[in-house]
Amino acid sequence: MKINKQYRLWDDTRIVLMGKGILVGLLAGFIVSLFRLAIELILKQVKIIYLFLTQQPQWLIGWILLSVVLAVFLGHLIHSESNIKGSGIPQVEGQLQGTVELYWWPVLWKKFIGGILAIGSGLFLGREGPSIQLGAMTGQGVNQLFKGKRMDEKILLSSGASAGLSAAFNAPLAGLLFVLEEVHHNFSPLIGLTSLASAVTANFVSLNFFGLKPILDIGSLTPLPLSEYGHLLILGFLLGLFGLMYQKVLLLLPRLYGKIPCLSSKYYSIVPFLLIIPIGLFAPDLLGGGNELIIQLGLSSPTIGILASLFVLRFIFSMVSYGSQLPGGIFLPILTLGAILGSLYGNLAVEFVGMDPIYISSFIVLSMAGYFTAIGKAPLTAIILVTEMVGSLNQLMPLAVVSLVSYTIADLTGAKPIYEALLERLVGKDRYALKGRKEIIEVTVQAESILDGGMIRDFKWPKEALLTSIRRGESEIITHGDTVMHLGDTLIILTDEGVTQKVREQIKEMSEYKDKRI
Question: Element (H or E) spanning 424, and its range?
């Protein structure tokens, strides 16, 4: 009877958190949908203004002055709350790891306004990163409203992040996988269930705003025949190299911007706001994160020369936009660059090896996933995200092949997941410090881990960690030195909030090498 009572209490905890996750999904879905809608409406008006300026150039001076005023305003907004810079995903990851501390309300409203103005102005920035941060802040706010525990806050932060991505792209499964694969790097049933509840709810809200049509509706995709799979190996290899180049340049941006003479970091935003004007005058259709461009590539293919020029333009100006520290993400710009590379490769294959042009659209989709995998090192998220965005399931096998190859190339070159690298740059190398607040973390025993089959006493555990129990299936086992760990076990570890990520890394390292046993 005691066991049943424990199960009931555990189930009650799940139900309560899932209920809160649904509430987070409702609120985050509404906030992100308004965010997305405002960006689309403003961007549409900006494109109309640029068309007007080509016909009435005497108004160009006024538009330049307005752009400078807007850039200065955003610079001051960022200066007042530095945690709204960039995509916001590194800040969310840092908050979950205990290395970054955010106050949800100022970040929420300032990111909302700043993101709308920056992305809606036509800069090459994505809405998905800000949407993830908006969702996470909503989760933190709900937890504080209900006066929940610190552990509940981490769960609701995660579920809010999942809801944010789900509402931004109408991709609930990708929202869930992003949290598990990119943010936590492991599967926790409680986080998984709560995040799924939030993601599905947020997606339902978003669908009521934008309808059931896939966000990247590029028409029907012809399945790639097995005879063409050799192209996938070449494409994955190239995407891995291009992904490495993207990472290197992105991480150099603070140094490059720092070389601009007589310009304070508060006013970096002036640079992209001025440079976007020529692009808007000559090619207004290129403005924004790039989802409309991806759709156009799927419907009609430009020449090889135009595609190469388009890639160079979007690559450079994506860097200019993100390096200015404006509120905006890199998710959608990465997918856009991947789509251009896929179209470029497909056209080259048609021209030089006689591939059927009907497969160019497929290569666009495959390259989006492969390029994102090489940069974010989250292949499952990339595969499911692209699948949900295009609304087609017949590309899963080639998506997996391209993503696997590009991931392998990125791994062999030593590339880190981009958001992990950005977090390290944000908090510095000395980011681990005891905070005097206890934290419970979960670590899963993986198939390749030497923890599988070993006794707890056989390993030298981090000094800041205390292994309190093991969750095995639906049971929880109180540990002692002779307890044997098995594949799939979830280790429940008590540590300090400031060193949670350090403890995770130390446990991962000690489980990989047999000479770590004592």
Answer: helix 418-427
Reference 260, options 273, 247, 269; nearest CA is: 269
Indicate the pLDDT class of residue 184, thresholds 50, 70 and 90.
confident
pTM attached to this predicted model? 0.86
CA angle 377, 313, 304 (to 5 degrees): 90
Query: Mean pLDDT across the stretch 389-396?
Result: 87
Alpha-carbon span 230 to 43, nearest angstrom? 40
Q: Could you give the angle at the alpha carbon of 273 between the alpha carbons of 272 and 279, nearest 5°?
A: 80
Gap between the Cα atoms of 169 and 202, Å rounded: 11
Q: Cα dist. 411→244, 373, 403 in Å? A: 10, 11, 12
Angstrom distance (rounded) from CA 473 to CA 187: 13
* Residue limits of CATH 1.10.3080.10 in the chain: 2-210, 226-266+286-425
pLDDT score at 518: 42
> CA 93, CA 100: separation in Å to the nearest integer?
8
Residue position matching structure tokens 């579920």: 159
Contact 246, 415 (CB under 8 A): no
Judge contact between 418 and 378, C-beta under 8 A: no
Q: For residues 139 and 479, what is the distance between their CA atoms, to the nearest angstrom?
A: 33
Q: Look at residues 450, 449, 451 and name the one whose alpha carbon lies nearest to residue 470.
A: 451
Q: State the CB neighbour count (10 A cutoff) for residue 428.
A: 8
Q: How many CB atoms lie within 10 A of CB 360?
A: 21
Pick the CATH number of 226-266+286-425 from 3.40.50.2000, 1.10.3080.10, 1.10.760.10, 3.30.70.100: 1.10.3080.10
